[in-house]
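Quick question, first post here. What does this chain look like in 3D?
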Amino acid sequence: MIHSTLRTLLHAYNPTAPEEQEAKKTILTFIDKYPNCFERSLEVGHITASSWLLNKDNTHALMMHHAKLGIWVQLGGHCDGNPNPLEVSIKEAQEESGINSIVALSPAIFDIDIHLVPATSKEKAHYHYDIRFLLQVTSDEPFIQNRESKELRWVSKNREELPTDSRSITRMFDKWIGV
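> Answer (accepted):
Ran it through. Tokens below.
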């Protein structure tokens, strides 16, 4: 079954935050209802994959100011048919940071989130059912900004450096620093 990898990952994931507990149930229902859930063409929403990307020393996480959405987010993107969200997470982190030397610190899910993406002139409003992983850079390669971001920034474990107060981001930050 095409969804078996994601289903296995979700069943093994035990979130403590109430919003993640609800998201887990919703995502499992979503993938059961839509066999094409990994396709961007599914207009109601689709599975996406992203990462909390750490530097080599685990002292900073890379954030991006999203060019289209105008908000600070983690690196990530569309699965475009790939049913393995960990693979997609690594690929998107590499593409959006320009850093090739990236590995998963664990194959397990780090965080999940469901968020509404507003309508644009090219697409209707839809949901991203985001599966997130903890990744790390293994080299000293500098990041390279691309057209998808207005800015890339390493943020330290100092909460005051975090450029957003979005619960979707602060929840990952808190997990990282061990709150």
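Residues 6 and 84 are 7 Å apart (CA to CA).
The chain has four helices and eight strands.
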